[in-house]
Every structure is written in structure tokens, then in C-alpha cells.
Amino acid sequence: MTNTAHGAYADPNETPPMAQAIPLGLQHVLAMFASNVTPSIIVAGAAGLAFGGPEQVYLIQMAMLFAGVATLFQTIGFGPVGARLPIMQGTSFAFVGVLAGIAATQGMGVALTACLIGGVLHFCLGAFIKSLRWLFPPLVTGLVILAIGLYLIPTAIKYAAGGAADFQMAAQSFGSLKHWSVALTVVVVALAVKFFAKGSLSNSGILIGLLAGYVLAFVLGMVNFAAVGKAAWITGITPMPFGFEFNLGAVIAVTLVCVVSAIETVGDASATTKAGAGREATDNEIAGATYADGLGTAVAAVFGGLPNTSFSQNVGIVGMTGVMSRHVVTIGALFLIVCGLLPKIGAVIASMPLPVLGGGVIVMFGMVAAAGMNVLTEVKMNRRNMVIIAVSLTAGLGLNLVPTAVQYLPGVVKTLATSAVAPTALVAIVLNLVLPEDI
Questions:
Q1: Transmembrane stretches, by residue range (predicted)?
Q2: Average pLDDT, the chain
């Protein structure tokens, strides 16, 4: 696709000919597909759900289905809901650390209930999101994103080496050459395609890397298609599949991440209008994007889906192609919805061996951390800001790595203190407000 920025399709309400619109819509899906389904696989593993089992397959289906539904909230919208911009929604990595911890200790019912309530509160942020932005300058948002990436990196290494949980590390095959050869194949192919190919092929680098690793794993006898054969071709969806279980600590932790997610969505809405039309996003577009973000998260949680957020990588596609049409992204959303209703597709994804997924998330989680560092480049590195970075990261990551250090705290406070993201955000916000600017 050639760059036609601010050209014939700089208006969100215009639609290219279908011969162009369909490939452009699929390009948006390819750029986010791997990142969209990965959080569900990780949280399912943390919850102890069988790898490749029907519950994990269902969670993968819901990730695809409600990424599509949430995207329609953004591109088509109704009332105040939706930016009506080409914003692709997907399952958010920002929530993985918090939800994996909740799912591992309290179960998927508590995790998804927290997502439902957090999504409703996230939706309410749309009414006054503009007035909250001052609490989240680049110093705070950059730190939170960096903490998320750093927290997730050990999980990537565990997956690449062939294990999803600590007890699996004792297995003889953990860390074997076979596992690492598959994981490194994914990394090498993904990077080669990303940096030596062009256009939509380049944007699909991680997906192509995963496919290459999948093929190698199949050749090495690591792929089991038994679940694919048992999966139905089409199925319905189940409200609250893991039940409704309220836990205040879990709700607070998820809601804090929802606030950060809302701020990221505001940034993506602004970046989309700048990239595609050379203008600032309007107040209505920013509020609509936030409403859609929260509604998408709440609706997904009702049926077993994890929280949704805008996908920043898709902003790059808008800038690269210059096609600002929201209807192009609507086509991509419809494709995701179809995939989400076909359990066979979910079962194929769930059959992906852990080292294949590990190779992909080594790149993806590293990129999350790098994105946080990129945001921090906007921050002046004086003594004040360096102290905030040091103390916030130490509090967030340190307590997460040594949870027994706060084992005597009440349940709600302990959940927050060991979630990595919540303490990093809270410490950064408080220090940014109270420390003087002139040190």
C-alpha cells in the first residue's frame, strides 16, 4: 500500500472501493491478531485451565469475538459511544499481570467479575476523561507501560523454554534445545519479516513468525491436534461462564489499570487523527473512544472475554496507508467476529505449543517495555524524575517479585501491593504530585 496521507481517504466517513477496503481491513487484523489472543492464553494458563482444553479454546474465541464487537463500538458507534474513527480494539496486555495473579490465586470467576465492574467504571470515565489527563503525564504512563513489559518478560522466557508454571521447570524437557530452537525460529523469522519486508507483510511479522514456529513444532512432533478434531464448527456464547464472584481488591486493581488503559486510548485516538488526517482529535471523539473502550471491556467480561483497549500498532497502519476510513476497520472487525464464532479456529490456536507462543511473546513483551521507554523519552531526566522512576519501579516490581514481604497485609491491600502495575502507578502519581519541580 502506498502512502496517501491526508489524501482521498482522510475523511473517516469515506470508503475505498471494496477491492481496496477488504485487503486493508484484513491488514489491520493481521497486525493485531497474535497480540489479541495471547493474553487469554496466558491468563488461562495462570488459572490452571488445561492447555488446549475446551475452556482455554473458549477464552480464545471470546478474545476474537469481542475484539470485533468492541471495534464496531468504535467505528460505527451509537449515541455518545464510539470515536467513529479507524480504531482497532483488542485484548489488552496491560491487564495480563493483574489478571494472571488474580486468576492464579482466586480463579477466573473473580478475575472476570473484576473486569465487568472495571469496564463499567471505565465507561463512566468517558464523561470526564479530559479532566483526568493531568494525572497521567508521560512520566506516569511511561512508567506503567514499562512496568507491564518488565513484569511479563519472565513469563515469555518460561514459555519459550517449554513451561508455563514454576512446577513445570523441573521437567526434563524444560529448557531443551528442541524448545529453544522453535522459540528462536519464531523470533528470527518475525524480525526478518518485520525489517526486511514491506507493507502488509512487514506488519504481519509476528504472525508469520508464529506460523513458521508452528510448522517447525509440527515437524518435531510437538503439535497435538486432538482438541481441533473434537471442537465444533460453530457454537454459541455463555453468559458468566465462570460465575460472578466479587472481590474488592481485584476490582480496585483492575479498575486502576482501566484508568491507564483509558489514557492510552485517548493517546491512540489523537495519534489516529494526526496520522490519517493531520488534525487533533475532538473532545467528542476522545470521549466516544473512552465510552467504547469501557463498554467493550464490560460486555466481553460478561461472556468470558478479557478487557479490550485500542491497539497502537494499528495507528501505524493508518499513517502508513493514509486511509482514514473507519469502514475499512469495520471490515476487519467483522472478520474477527466470524473467527470468534468458529471453535475450530480457537482450537487450532490453542494447539500452539508453548515454545511457539514463547518466541512470539519474547518480541511482544519486549516491545511493551520498549514502548514504555519510548514514552519516557519525552520526560526530562532530572534528579526529581529519576527518583520517581527509581522508587516507582522498585515498589511495583520488587513487591511483585517478593510477595511474602507483604504477606501480613489485608487481602485487598495485598492484592494491590503485589500486582506490579498498581503500586507502580500509585507511587508514580503520588510522587509526581508532591515532589517539587526544582530538585
A1: 29-51, 57-78, 136-157, 177-197, 204-226, 246-266, 328-350, 356-376, 388-409, 415-435
A2: 82
